[in-house]
Design brief:
Helices cover about 50% and strands about 0% of the residues. The protein contains five helices and no strands. Helix 3 runs antiparallel to helix 4, helix 3 runs parallel beside helix 5 and helix 4 runs antiparallel to helix 5.
Length: about 140
């Protein structure tokens, strides 16, 4: 008891799919302590009915930047305007209040980022909002 040097506390394991620099980790690169087969199997195969994404699914997604974020919101607005088919539901459904809400989020984002965007980002926001607002007016008629 007297000469033993034990550290107490807890261990932190980094399981993020990206490094601190924002670079995706390779599949061979260890991200932390090894897992038991039961733990890794439960993470790779979600229970039926659960839409839980794994690290492999995240690697297939595009990098998150301003353009992809804004275009994602734009796609959501188009879906609610009935311009896009819902991937799960199939037939086109309009939800104008939700479309207006998403357009308002984009407008708020444009206001809050004014002066901090590149010229390309500003043009994307302006043209996307213009197009979505026109489509909303047409869908409201």
């Amino acid at each position: 008891m007297g000469s033993e040097n034990k550290q107490g506390g807890f261990t932190v394991t980094d399981r993020r799919s990206f490094t601190d620099a924002g670079v995706p980790r390779s599949a061979e690169e260890p991200t932390g302590a090894p897992q038991t087969p039961e733990a890794s199997a439960s993470e790779e195969t979600p229970e039926p009915g659960h839409g839980r994404k794994t690290a492999r699914d995240a690697a297939a997604l595009p990098a998150v930047d301003f353009h992809t974020f804004v275009l994602s919101l734009g796609s959501s607005a188009l879906l609610h305007l009935g311009e896009l088919e819902h991937p799960d539901a199939g037939p086109v459904e309009k939800d104008l209040p939700l479309a207006k809400h998403t357009i308002d989020i984009l407008a708020m984002l444009q206001d809050k980022t004014k002066g901090n965007l590149t010229q390309a980002e500003e043009k994307l926001m302006e043209s996307l909002l213009y197009d979505l607002r026109l489509r909303y007016v047409n869908a409201s008629k």
